[in-house]
């Protein structure tokens, strides 16, 4: 997907996307650096957008690891499906249904979770529900890496995770904050 196409989709869907630019390679590299690829059997990405971070996850995954990719935009799901990797399953549904899809694929918990969901623009009740479900279906000791453009939602993660580290990544438009939740 071109930058212009991404921008057009972002403007049309600002309430569900929360950004007008795709993530930089610096964000992508930093986000995937927190995943334990060596031991992961299933990784979940939620709020995948057009799949720019998905590609970085797939590059680092072992041949037998599975990736479940959640995205609510049909346009972006079609874009992600063009990546064409048998280890990946694209799910056009809300991340609040993570448990259903993990169970359908024979897994109890995700090993690690990467999230680009713009919780700042979601209703508080929905954001709380999704984060609660993500935590519920993340293995003990697993990591959830959340992309944000501010630190306003740190309290949301503090309700569900024991430790939240924040990493500032200036080489992105706009500069971003990663919330590393364990």
Rg, please? 15 Å
Mean pLDDT: 90
Number of domains: 1
Largest sheet: 7 strands, mixed
CATH domain fold name: Rossmann fold
Number of helices: 8
Going by helix content, strand content and strand pairing, the class is alpha/beta
CATH architecture label:
3-Layer(aba) Sandwich
**Secondary-structure element string:** HHHEHEHEHEHEHEE
Q: Please indicate the percent range of residues in DSSP E strands (runs of 2 or more).
A: 15-25%
CATH H-level superfamily title: Vaccinia Virus protein VP39
The general outline is: globular
How would you describe what is shown here?
This protein is 35% helix and 24% strand. It contains 8 helices and 7 strands, in the order H-H-H-E-H-E-H-E-H-E-H-E-H-E-E. A 7-stranded mixed sheet has the order 3-2-1-4-5-7-6, with helices on both faces. Helix 3 packs across helix 4.
List keywords for this structure.
alpha/beta; Rossmann fold; 24% strand; globular; 182 residues; 35% helix; seven-stranded mixed sheet
Would you summarize the structure shown here?
It is built from eight helices and seven strands. It is of the alpha/beta class and 182 residues long. Strands 3-2-1-4-5-7-6 form a seven-stranded mixed sheet, sandwiched between helices.
Topology:
Blueprint: H1 3-12, H2 14-17, H3 25-32, E1 42-46, H4 52-60, E2 66-70, H5 74-81, E3 88-91, H6 98-104, E4 110-115, H7 124-136, E5 138-148, H8 154-158, E6 164-169, E7 176-181
Helix pairs in contact: 3-4
């Amino acid at each position: 997907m071109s930058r212009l196409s991404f921008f057009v989709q972002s403007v049309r869907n600002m309430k569900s996307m929360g950004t007008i630019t795709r993530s930089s390679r610096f964000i992508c590299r930093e986000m995937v650096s927190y995943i334990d690829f060596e031991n992961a059997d299933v990784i979940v990405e939620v709020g995948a957008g057009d799949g720019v971070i998905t590609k970085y996850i797939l590059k680092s995954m072992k041949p037998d690891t599975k990736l479940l990719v959640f995205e609510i935009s049909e346009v972006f799901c079609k874009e992600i499906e063009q990546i064409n990797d048998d280890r990946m399953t694209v799910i056009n549904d809300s991340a609040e249904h993570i448990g259903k899809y993990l169970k359908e694929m024979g897994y109890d918990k995700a090993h690690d979770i990467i999230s680009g969901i713009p919780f700042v623009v979601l209703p508080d009740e929905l954001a709380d529900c999704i984060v609660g479900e993500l935590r519920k279906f993340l293995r003990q000791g697993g990591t959830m890496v959340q992309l944000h453009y501010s630190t306003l939602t740190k309290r949301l993660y503090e309700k569900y995770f024991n430790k939240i580290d924040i990493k500032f990544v200036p080489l992105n438009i706009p500069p971003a904050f990663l919330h590393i939740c364990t």
